[in-house]
Amino acid sequence: MLEVLRRVIQEVNGARNLDAALSTMVRRIRKAMQTDVCSFYLYDKELESLVLMETIGLRTQAVGRVVLPLGEGLVGLVAKRSEPLNLEEAQMHPQFRYFEATGEERYSSFLGVPIIHQRLMLGVLVVQQAEKRRYDDEDEAFLVTMAAQLAGVLAHALATGNLLRPALAGGQAMFKGVAASPGMAMGEAVVITPPSDLNSVPDLVPNDQDFEVARLKEAIGKTRSEIRAAAERLASRISAQELALFDVYQQMLGEAALADEVEKRIREGQWAPGALADVVRRHVQYLERVDDNYLRERAADIRDLGRRVLAHLQEDTPSTPETYPDNAILVGDEISVAMLGEVPRDKLKGLVSVRGSSTSHVAIVARAMGIPTVLGMVDLPLPRLGGAPVLLDGHRGRLFVRPGPELKARYESLIAEEEALSELLEHEQDLPSATPDGYSLPLMVNTGLAVDANALLKSRIGGVGLYRTEVPFMITERFPGEKEQTKLYRDQLEGFAPLPVVMRTLDIGGDKDLPYFPIDEANSFLGWRGMRVTLDHPEVLMVQLRAMLKASIDLDNLSVLFPMITNVEEVDEALRLLDRAILELGEEGITVVRPQVGVMIEVPATIYQMDSLAKRVDFFSVGSNDLTQYLLAVDRNNPRVSSLYDALHPALLGALLELAQDAKRLNKPISLCGELAGDPAGALLLMAMGFTSLSMNAPSLPKVRAAIRRVPLSDAEQLLEEVMALDTPALVHAHLDNRLDEWQLSHLMPPRD
Fold this sequence. Notes:
- This protein is 43% helix and 16% strand.
- It is an alpha/beta fold.
- The chain folds into 5 domains: 1-160, Beta-Lactamase (2-Layer Sandwich), CATH 3.30.450; 185-193 and 322-419, Glucose Oxidase, domain 1; 209-314, Orthogonal Bundle (Enzyme I, Chain A, domain 2); 430-436 and 623-752, TIM Barrel (Alpha-Beta Barrel); 463-618, TIM Barrel (Alpha-Beta Barrel).
- β21, α24 (680-689) and β22 form a beta-alpha-beta unit.
- The longest helix is centred in the N-terminal third of the chain and has 26 residues, at 209-234.
- The two termini are 45 Å apart.
């Protein structure tokens, strides 16, 4: 039976489309189980009914016409109970219902199993036989296994529109992705394709290496010009902070990065296109393994640059439209910053991409430009979208294709409300983040690029709560030297001076290894990460600490943060290295001030070592994203369990409250950097707990500031008391929604279903 199962699954997966797969499946199952009938019923959530979608054995004219409400008939009973039903005489069961159109009066035996994907009912798989037959355990196990295999295929088909539910009249469909830039827009889908395919470049040996190098340099030069032109088109529409992201593209094209390595491959005997494709693929494959979303998204930048250079090497032109509609929603497999600059700004209303996340460069620029953006929409059927009317919800990460009149009317109202809110909040951005009863809570930003500093942002924040130092380590072929690092850190410290800047030491390891420093582990989340790596390689950490200290001379706004701390011994050893760096610089005639030192609270073990840690450090910084994953044992990048990841889980809120209380008792500042800080309701809870500052991505500042300015500390403390008495995340979310409604602050939260 296992061999039969393997063959059936293989044929289903190899079918040209879902309809063919369903047809193949019911026929193969009927043959394998030696029964008379095999049928598939699709569950329609909106109708709360099951529809006969495919059968072999029943009358074909019944397909699409037989509809069973949930709980009605034997099929409806299987779906309602979410468990198999095995009957020798089906007509004797009190739930049996006869449909004349099917001709099933001839069949006595019945076995039905539910098709469930991630707790969602998708349908029911049924076999029937004319003779009385009690399907045995092996039969039932076979059908249950087939249903489990079909669940994933079916879920994907429904999401991509390859199988529309019967209730979706007019072709309206909805797709989900990652909310990358807030806002809502209505318009026409414009599908764009990448300029070249890096995966279809043949390997050829060049006749003239010098000619290939010259071709490469010419192609890079043309790409530089493209990037420069795109930047110039956006120059008047985005701030220097976002505009500087184009400089990062230019740096990646420099001789010290991609070009140098590609030229080396050419000298080793590859032609220019092949050498370029190999180098780009290697960088991309490495970056895509990284756990940190911000760093992983650099793969998109490398891939886009590689495609552009390859297009010039192949003398192709980028596949972008010559004209755009007035309300263009740009849709593509992967959208880059450069592509964004090629579309007239007055016509660009939204962005949708199959790849990418909220930390990508295109997301950063889109947020700065106020363009609603949804990325990571993996189930998007790109070829079928061109020219379709669409509705984009950047708050909830949704794209509606061919929306109906009611949905359009609802979103027109929401869009008008949002425009009025944006205008109101902009007037408050230079005002203090203080409550009506006079309590002040500093708001900080998370940064990751040396170019993130800008004058506009400085007037609106209390400093940088987290600067990721990994970037320079990711874009080079080796560990960057002390001089290189010093310049990068100096740019960041000077850019925000005199505001404090918290620099996290190198946070690599596990699935965050470097191309020149590979790490292979079975369980990367519990492996060689953060301080565990840098303490094992003090020569790396010492260079970084020396560079940070030298960069802070005469500025004195540096704070050093140690990540992934589990034991106090790790802190002791790190502090010894810091003191040694200060001493070494002193011996070289360089006098530096010892910076404030903190530890990241992201491993649950540190919650119970606060007293010991407080004797050693000046401040605490809670990494709520990792702490949530570790505390709840949930990998939020795993779609099977990502729904369990919830920063408002009562257990996590209890841990955060305990941390804030401990920090207050120990007289130490405590900050939180993570998504919870950027959520207005979450920020109110953290303020009530006693967190002394919150650090978030810059786009979250306006709404968090607005919430703090409108809710007295006393009311926030009462809210916290109410929330801490609740038992489930769902109750917490519902209570927060109700309270914000009462305070007339629901407009600060994303639109609800």
